[in-house]
Amino acid sequence: SQYASMLELFLQSPTTTDDTGIVRLRDLIDFISHVADCYPKLTADFHTDLIKLLELHHQSLEVELRDKIVGSLVLLRKKEIIDSNTLLNTLWPLLISTPSKALRALLFQKIVSDLRTSNSKNKNHKLNRNIQTICYNLIATDPASPKGLWAVKLTRELWKRQVWTDAKAVSVMEIAALSQDAKVVTSGVRFFLGSDQEREEAAEEESDDEEDVDMRKLKHRAGINKKSAKQERETQSAAAKVKRKEKRKNQHQTLNFSALHLLHDPQGFAEKLFQQHLQPEKPKVRLTLEQKLYVSS
Asked: By 3-state DSSP, what share of the chain in percent is helix, strand and coil, each rounded to 5?
């Protein structure tokens, strides 16, 4: 087939393939990913080809081709040709290893999106446990590595969106707060200081989907036009949104009580934080004054 021939030519010399060859391969990948569910036997190895391309050549792939491969894998997941575990176990190692900022942003967005979709109707406990274990082990096996920050970012985002709400997610943040990388420690501690508030804000954003409200224009319009019950409701609703925004701006930091309640030993956790990060004269983790203030909060 044309696709097999183009792929073979590309793999012979991935870094020197000309623009025409790259565009042709990209178009073929796009086409096949859209029709793969119609020809399951003919495209049985297609997803394996894409995974190998990403794993072996993600650092040297032309940007648009690389992004097309990621997008095609996501499409295959939506068509249920591959499952979430296959997709996430492909994207996650790339996320924590690639030096490309653009690719990291794309991979993180796709991982979060797939986990949210997988939990949209019912909690996918098996998938959640699998990814939570990967996050936990990333920090536990190398506490001094900055890569642990990705485990923290993912857990924090999914907690905020109320996708992960269990003790396993909290244990990821607990071990992060007790790790040996300053950024990972700070992010872990901040989770316990304010994630309930983040949840509330995320819920309001999703329910309102609101744009900035101009109260002056609303009042002016209400003054000119004859008042109706509908306009009155709109004005009151807009005023309530403005008040909520102002309240969020002025809110002081609050503890993440829902996460603290899921800790196995909250008192022991607090003592370990103090002993590890604040008490020693020469701690393993060098924290700035601001970071120490977070820990001591």
From this structure: 75, 0, 25
Rounded CA-CA distance 173/234 in Å is: 41
Query: 174-207, pLDDT tens digit by residue?
Result: 999 999 888 898 889 888 887 556 555 655 655 5
Residue 273 contacts residue 177 (beta carbons within 8 Å): yes
- Please check whether residue 151 is in contact with residue 172, taking contact to mean a CB–CB distance below 8 angstroms: yes
pLDDT tens digit sequence for 230-259: 677 766 777 766 666 665 555 444 555 788
> Is the distance from CB of 117 to CB of 153 less than 8 angstroms?
no
Which residues, 6+ apart, have CB-to-CB distance to 123 below 8 Å? Answer: none
Give the C-alpha separation, 98 to 129, whole Å. Answer: 25
With tokens 């990621």, the residue in question is 70
Q: How far is CA 113 from CA 74, 120, 126, 128, in A?
A: 10, 10, 17, 13
Half-sphere exposure of 248 (CA within 13 A, CB side): 17
pTM as predicted: 0.77
* Domains in the chain: boundaries: 1-119, 123-212+262-296
